[in-house]
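Next comes this protein.

***
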Amino acid sequence: MTDENAPRPPQQQEVPGTEAALTPKADHGETSYVGTGKLEGRIALITGADSGIGKAVAIAFAREGADVVISYLSEHEDAEDTRHWVEEAGRRALVVPGDLTDPANCRDLVARTVEEFGRVDVLVNNAAFQMVRESLEEIPDEEWDRTIATNLGAFFHVTKAALPHMSSGASIIGSSSVQADQPSPTLLPYAATKAAIASMTSSLAQQLGERGIRANSVAPGPVWTPLIPSTMPADVVEQFGADTPLGRAAQPAELAPAYVFLASDEASYVSGAVIAVTGGKPIL
């Protein structure tokens, strides 16, 4: 794995950020994750799979035996790198760009998945947007709308479109956050959506239990991804994750096993849960 204690210089990127400009590089498990067949033959749709947690999950799922749909906004080079790792694992990859703030694109994503693979076995709602603002008054209306549409609206629309193509044994996984329970005042819209994701996932678990479909969420703490330097001031980026009990941010590869667990038969009686991967920060 990448040295998680490697120096992190002050840096910023334009939204949405890219892996190529990240210093130091993030570790997605490219050289470390070893699969054991936990997801053999399954079809996984992952939003935000070009980089960060989504990329690490895509690599892990492929090495566990799943074919993977890589949904992303516009970071083509990063998405193609994710495709490379999925295909190197001997699995099929479908790469689908598109802005999921548009419900039509959410429906198209699922339609293309079903056209290619016939069904959805694992749905990971991971795409997210955030921006640091010092006060409520500084948050532009359009930024509030974008945050809600990306983090929460896409979860709703993709899941709604996917459910007719999911059957007993399928798994829905949302990316919540420690922000749901310990909201930073400078991330107000983002934190609100992450709390809503945890709530929505719990509701889905109760709705879908009789259909044999499980719904859970993972609550990451600080994770080193392109989202960080593209949405936070450079001085904050330099110290990112230092306030956790473990004293550092996570690498994306450290999140992937939680998603693998929730997607697999090992979690056959786990539904409505939130798994904290926070470096020691408590969640409720």
Notes: The two ends are 30 Å apart (CA to CA). Strands lie at 43-47, 67-72, 93-97, 122-125, 171-175, 214-220, 274-277. The longest strand covers residues 214-220.
